[in-house]
């Protein structure tokens, strides 16, 4: 299967940086409220490692498994991890995807940010089932849900612009419905010198959409309960096992 991130990895880390500004403290807060105190943290679709950095800062000493299927993204991730002693000592970068990579039983938390839409419904359900079986008591799965929640057209919009040295980098996104619960994103990346295009790339990938209500019902089938956390605009959700006593409180 082709990797849409093969050509966008060059741009993704710098263009996703701004969206991590509010996301990082919200993720740190969600992780510090996880009741489980032991076990590793699994970061699914760790990308360039911005989440890994937040996990390591929020939960000192905790081992992290950073699962990432794209070799191009792993190159950025490995560089980020290798560069910092405190990451290199406890972050393991695992090549593979959500469905194919084993995690140990008793994980403290699973983080899946900006990636749940990559999972077709069957794989998404499998992930909820696996979390219900393999989270430590009091453990949590943290993910985010971003619009659109139904398969609709998304008009092309600039999502980010940064300047590095003498060049500007831009990201643009649009989407079209391509199935009953599916859209296809088109991402255009551009490099400009004084407003003139110098380089760029366009990629498309499938993305499965769902509403929060449908998801809440879906995770309940796996024995999990969904609650929102952080600023509502972030779409941050925490899943805990219904049978963990404290998840019934607050
Ligand atoms: C938009 S990026 C987000 C990266 C990172 N989580 C962040 O928020 O900065 C989505 C990531 O999910 C990864 N991905 C795609 N399909 C996946 C799957 N089935 N299992 C795990 N990761 C996947 C991609 O390779 C990519 O690195």
TrEMBL record:
Signal peptide: none
Gene3D superfamilies reported for this sequence: Vaccinia Virus protein VP39
Domain Methyltransferase: 41-139
Coiled coil start-end: none
Superkingdom classification of source: Bacteria
CDD domains, sorted: AdoMet_MTases (cd02440)
One protein family per Pfam: Methyltransf_25
Molecular functions (GO terms): methyltransferase activity
Protein name: Methyltransferase domain-containing protein
